[in-house]
From TrEMBL:
Listed name of the protein: Serine/threonine-protein phosphatase
Keyword Metal-binding: yes
Top enzyme category: hydrolase
Requisite cofactors: Mn(2+)
Disordered: annotated span: 1-62
Every Serine/threonine specific protein phosphatases domain range: 202-207
Family: Belongs to the PPP phosphatase family.
Highest classification ranks of the organism: Eukaryota, Viridiplantae, Streptophyta, Embryophyta, Tracheophyta
Biological source species: Cuscuta australis
Reaction(s) the record says it catalyses: O-phospho-L-threonyl-[protein] + H2O = L-threonyl-[protein] + phosphate
Amino acid sequence: MLPETPSMLPPPALHPAPSLTPQPPSSDEDFFSSASVASTSSSSEEEKHCLTPSPSPSSIAPQIPISWPVDGTLTLAWVTDLMLAFDWASRNLPPADLPTVLPVEAFDRLVLTASKILHKEPNCVRIDDGSGLGPESRVVVVGDVHGQLHDVLFLLRDAGFPGEDRFFVFNGDYVDRGAWGFETFLLLLAWKVLMPRRVYLLRGNHESKYCTSVYGFEKEVLTKYGDRGKHVYRKCLGCFEGLPLASVIAGRVYTAHGGVFRASVVTPSKRAKGKKTRRINLIPDPSVLSLGSFEELSKARRSVLDPPWEGSNLIPGDVLWSDPSMTNGLSPNKERGIGLLWGPDMTEEFLRKNNLKLIIRSHEGPDAREKRSGLGGMEEGYTVDHVVESGKLITLFSAPDYPQFQATEDRYRNKGAYIVLEPPHFDSPVFCSFDAVTPRPKANPFYDFEDVIDSDEELDLASMVTS
């Protein structure tokens, strides 16, 4: 593990001041601790030096409570103040005092502004020349972060903040399990509002009502915002509905939380006798499984809190819950009870049909991979699962030393990772692994981690439909 450091961020100036007197930052470098560094020790030829870290934009301590700008326009200083304030609060305040840092009024404005942006985006966002992607650009792809705020703060510092030539694609699962899912999600929403065409937030399977009720995010929000907690939680759920499902980068790289998806094969149901004017209903044929098209993906109804595991709108569930397999073919994902399992032949078909070179997905941490024979572990924060004629399938996981709370004493102590895609083709991944920031502030879990299984397998997903 890395050496312990007292804090990643300097404390903010408080108005009014709490019982703990904050200290001013000593230098720009104090904006983030240098304890964690990206690791490029793998023997893989693809693993190179990562991006040059961003310097601190300001050493001025932020003012709290955070208030929404009078003109409604966010600035880099506002977003970095939010980062500073969240880090300080996580180390010095009890969770129930978070409204003194980010009042509900500021939360409402941030979530409303972000939701309007997200809901206007298509199911699959395209990041290409029309989006400003150019010969000097880099694209940073991030996997699951699961409320591990301090590791996200480090990742942003290590990869470099979003900018004119630095794009970010976050692959979902911002909340649950970790103690700071709310702060993590709000921070990424702030970056999205600040740079809507440089930061893309995709949806993960945990951005749902069902998962957040099982793995802690709902209780976290209710704990932090008290009698306003239900209001705040509902606003977060509404924002989850707007998160896009996938992205295509430079026409070469497909990213989604879970992976590929099925075609919408339907068959007409029988028309009742004597009902000539009754409309013929189309129902999906569960016996026919084939890969879907981007046109079908674009038409899927994503604004559902819990994607169905049966019925006519199965594509969102596939995109969010599916897993790769080392066995050829396409089949129902019986372990999870929702989504698909797909083999190397399906990866080849998906890449070839869509003229792609890479699939980057997330969804599986070290706990899930421990149970999956034939697939690599998550010790370095990523695995290359399929290597086929047309390209590769990669699983990317960005939450190191995961999960924060774990029922077993033998922790995985995995690294997290992010991927950098570079010009001219943006299809040769540069893997950047990093260790967890330590010490992690002490916090209590918001779910019963001793009784709830670590991975998402074997959950009663059928209850999502009626939850």
